[in-house]
Amino acid sequence: MRTPRRLRAMAATALLGLMAAMAAPAGAARAEPAGPAAPAERTVGDLTGFSTAGAVFHLRAGEARVRVTFVAADTFRVELAPDGTFTDPVGKDIVQPQGPPPATRWRERADRYEMSTPAVTLRAYKSPLRFALHRADGSRLWAETKGLTWTKDRTTQTLARGADEQFYGAGMQNGRGNTSHRGRTVEVGVDYNWNDGGHPNSVPFYLSSAGYGVYRNTYAPGTYAFTDPVTTSEQERRFDAYYFAGRSAKEVIGRYTKLTGRPFLPPLYGLEIGDSDCYLHNKNRGERRTLDALKVADGYTANDLPLGWMLVNDGYGCGYENLSEVNKGLGDRKMKMGLWTEDGLAKLGEQVKAGQRVAKLDVAWVGDGYKFALDGCKDAYKGIEDNSDARGFTWAPESWSGAQRCGVQWSGDQKGSWEYIRWQIPTYAGATMSGLAYTTGDVDGIFGGSPKTYVRDLQWKAFLPAVMTMDGWAPSDKQPWRYGDPYTSINRKYLKLKESLLPYMYSYAAQASRTGVGPVRPLALEYPGDPKAASDAAKYEFLTGEYFLVAPVYEDKEVRDGIYLPEGKWTDYWTGRTYQGPTTVNGYRAPLDTLPLFVKAGANIPMWPGIRSYEDRTADSPVAWDVYPHGTSSFTLYEDDGVTRAHRTGAYAEQKLTVRAPESGPGDVTLSLDALNGDFRGKQTARPYRFTVHTGAAPAAAVLDGRELPGLDSKEAFEKADQGWWYDPADRGGVVQVKTGTRATDRAFTLTLRAG
To answer: What is the pLDDT of residues 37-46, one digit of tens each?
Structure first.
């Protein structure tokens, strides 16, 4: 066990227990004086004053003061000072500059004041003071059933709950979050519980299917009860909340991350698998030196397994040596070096100059209300950027609102098991609903584990943006080749698939940096009108982007039941079998090498075929598109140099593929690829393209910009050809393969598969 962490948690628990024993009566069997009375709860009274100064409104209710500040047409802040004095312990730590305030207006009615922007109206009822939010069209988003309440150490808001209203958010909620919190109570705050039911990387933000979100601007822990009525409390004698209105959950997440910061865009190596261990005086592995990390790196190469980066000092008391030499060795192997910051950040600048590009933070950074954790994330991220041209890239086991700007949120120390797989599935997609775009756990945990659970865990985590293996704590090492075949071969299959999908994942990562919506998504985010998407029917599955539906196997079985496919046509990625949703698939055959994986009709998926590292790409490497034609659909590929920060000043390019096909039955399939617009260092000026088009029938011809491509009669002939097409009826229900040859990237082209 990782004793220092456990000791911290045990010490905290013991202290809480001691405090409780000192504060509470000893029990009914002993004659003790009565304990102190529970703190009296007070509710804000009648409105006694109203004034305005631009987009800021001041309300009085006796001694209490309320301040309403509009920061955008659909975003505003409500603060309550029970004693009339406003405080702001968070300051500028989390909320980002928002630009000029919106145009506002107000008017008084008999029973209320109305404060409005072109998008929303906040009503302040006079007797007693209660708030309600409406859209400009008059439809209600939320309403208080009683006024804001407080005790000496807690403030609470109470809202009416809609008949079908669903709730999401509160950060990383282990075992929960990708389905609705309705009827449940969630805790927001540190508890050092990294297993099912814990809540590391909490975020004081939630959103409602009614079209609003709430961010409590605080470092205090909270309790959110999504019962009837909804009560949300923070452990502080001040109320400070921002409210967002949006037409969808994606819009609300976008408003929240515009306020608190968009997710960062990781470097490409950050989307490859990482390896973490202690390579200096490892008590579990015997005497080692930091340079021994290179021998492990060679194991990845020898076994033809991808690896993006290594943490070479991941262990309590584990130092390091020969950093520059280790960094050069990893670089020669197309890998980056990372370090654990257990001892703080004082040496970070020196380490980054020696080659460090990943900083993993420790629970030692967690202070009162997460401020230290957030500061650690920001400082480590900035330290990498201040001392190199690389992008900041950190991992944190505990964080808070704003940490999406600087790091991957990691769920902590767990034991590999079937149960571990089960509760992790809903955790990471659920965290996306709080603006956390990169959340993950170690492959098969850091303790325990087995060959089968390792394979099953790695399969689905290959569809998370970020993932790593962690060694040195389990009885044996946990690199993906350690158990031998057939396990090594299966792990290789999924890690290479993850590599080939880098352009798909990276495009969604770029999208997250603009919109706040992460690549891994609960079904409820993409299918908000489907009640099953919010229910336990969809709990143990998720979407990667809009097109991949992943349904992990979390039991020691080779059959997966209860796979819910929402509306649309879905294709089994491995067999080509199609399903029409909404439907539930039972009895899905999933031997150990098969992850239940489905692709939505209309998908256009960019891929980099045949690579083990993003650095394998050369100036003439192809871009391959995996296309599932259905009606009209499009996807925009994003590219930049993958490593530096030049994209922030416009050094990137995008290329859009639009596919037009019948929604059912035979017909032409037309693929229109736009020019690659934009520029960056290393941009390909010309490259070959490949297309895999799932038609289910052979075309009569493949026409590229009005010219027929040669039809080829075998896979061997197709692979040898520079350009041409070949139809394979045995491949996943019938697939057309097309090569265009090398083409200039600044020119658009059209490929048409004419119906036979």
So the answer is: 556 899 999 9
pLDDT, one tens digit per residue, over 466-480 is: 999 998 788 889 999
Which string of DSSP letters, residue by residue, matches 298-344? HHHHHTT----EEESB-STT-----HHHHHHHHHHTT-EEEEE-TT-
pTM of the model: 0.94
Q: Which of 553, 419, 412, 427 is nearest to 470 (CA)?
A: 412
Residue 654's beta-bridge partner residues?
A: 638, 677
Per-residue pLDDT at 34 exceeds 50: no
CA dist 712 → 515, 610, 705 (Å):
44, 22, 19
Three-class SS of residue 407?
A: strand
> In this structure, are strands 415-416 and 447-448 parallel, antiparallel, or unpaired?
parallel
How many angstroms separate the CA atoms of 411 and 422, rounded?
14
CA distances 548 to 18, 273, 436, 571, 573, Å, are 50, 19, 19, 10, 9
520: left (phi over 0), alpha (psi -120 to 50) or beta: beta
Q: Is 513 within 8 Å of 263 (Cβ atoms)? A: yes
pLDDT per residue as tens digits for the range 612-641: 999 999 999 999 999 999 999 999 999 999
Number of C-beta neighbours around residue 587 at 10 A: 8
DSSP string over 35-69: PPPPPPPEE-----EEEEETTEEEEEETTEEEEEE
- Two tokens at 518? 């992460």
- Amino acid identity at 429: A
